[in-house]
Amino acid sequence: MKIVIVLLLSCLCLSGCGVAAAPCRVSSALIKMLPFVGHDVAAPTDSCAGTLDPDAVSSS
User: Fold this and answer.
1) pLDDT in tens, 5-23
2) What's the CA gap between 50 and 14, in Å, rounded?
3) CB neighbourhood size of 44 (10 A)
4) Domain ranges of the chain
5) CB atoms < 10 A from the CB of 17, how many?
6) What is the pLDDT of residues 30-50, one digit of tens each?
7) Which of 24, 33, 44, 59 has the CA that lies 20 to 30 A from 51?
8) Residue 59: which H helix or E strand, with range?
9) Rounded distance, CA 34 to CA 28, Å?
10) pLDDT the model gives residue 16
11) CA distance 49 to 57
12) pLDDT of residue 15
């Protein structure tokens, strides 16, 4: 019974487009670590994440 409850709660937490946008957001965060050009180079991955999950707030 505990397993079912845990699975249901995890499904509720992971529902939505945020899961699909996670790889774009992680890639963007890693690219932004590049000195001098990181934020400019990460712009396409930021737009990818924004397209997949437009409700999320990204202040980067």
Assistant:
1) 877 777 666 666 667 777 8
2) 17
3) 13
4) 17-54
5) 14
6) 999 999 999 999 999 888 888
7) 33
8) none
9) 11
10) 63
11) 11
12) 60
